[in-house]
């Protein structure tokens, strides 16, 4: 009897065993699993000058993640505290999705860069111990979408946002509020550069003003506790034409209300918790 089929089968078994030893199956949480793998860890790890190199693939063999770990025998091998040095995540088309660096405690530190699937830069972040700040962001075509700016006078946390055509979309900054504390300001512009919306927010209230052709047409004021809301409307001359005050969250009319008819007559009514009150005696 020929031994060729037996030898061929033995070689195939040895080769499949070697291939299986090249990767270890991971679940979605990156723990080792004997179930259908969500990811594949190249195994064994290889020691380098930067640490023990980690390469994780998707089940189809496409690389998903590359970095290093400090302790190759750690119980939680791929847990954040064990990660070290530069790291890279990849899109499913092979393009880089995110690249940055882990600190000696396994936290993302310093500058990290995110990319669109077409390879264009998407976002630059600066990671510090207290969190991160987005330095710049880009549209998918590579045009600038957002940039942070240095403090200017009493204005801090300044940034500008842009449309894909390069026109200014919004300006954002923080400055001292009139009644103390800080106030966030957001100015939104139409494609022609005209002010469209102005928003002020502090610890006590939020005010949103809408403009048309440079004129204020509506102002909405609400308290940050979510208890009441005031809506005011203005004509082209800037005169108040309507005033509605509500109790939240049910939007019940409360307090003095005002409405101007087409003839220019101003009518005032009073409500308390949704119920109209009789006019005061003259």
Protein model, in words:
With 282 residues, the protein is mainly beta. The chain is built from one helix and 23 strands. It has a 23-stranded antiparallel sheet that branches.
Topology:
Layout: H1 4-20, E1 23-26, E2 39-42, E3 46-48, E4 51-57, E5 63-69, E6 83-90, E7 96-102, E8 110-115, E9 121-128, E10 131-138, E11 144-149, E12 156-162, E13 168-176, E14 182-189, E15 195-201, E16 205-212, E17 215-223, E18 228-234, E19 240-247, E20 252-253, E21 255-260, E22 266-272, E23 275-276
Antiparallel strand pairs: 1-2, 2-4, 3-4, 4-5, 5-6, 6-7, 7-8, 8-9, 9-10, 10-11, 11-12, 12-13, 13-14, 14-15, 15-16, 16-17, 17-18, 18-19, 19-20, 19-21, 21-22, 22-23
Please identify, by name, the CATH architecture of the domain at 23-142: Single Sheet
CATH class of the domain at 23-142: Mainly Beta
Give the overall shape, derived from the CA principal axes: elongated
Strands, total number: 23
Number of helices: 1
Biggest β-sheet, characterized?
23 strands, antiparallel
Mean pLDDT: 91
Helical content, roughly?
under 10%
What is the CATH third-level topology name of the domain at 23-142? Histone H3 K4-specific methyltransferase SET7/9 N-terminal domain
Query: If you compute it from the alpha carbons, what radius of gyration comes out, rounded to the nearest whole angstrom?
Result: 31 Å
How much of the sequence lies in strands comes to: over 45%
H/E series, N to C?
HEEEEEEEEEEEEEEEEEEEEEEE
Keywords:
mainly beta; 282 residues; disordered N terminus; 1 helix; 23-stranded antiparallel beta sheet; Histone H3 K4-specific methyltransferase SET7/9 N-terminal domain
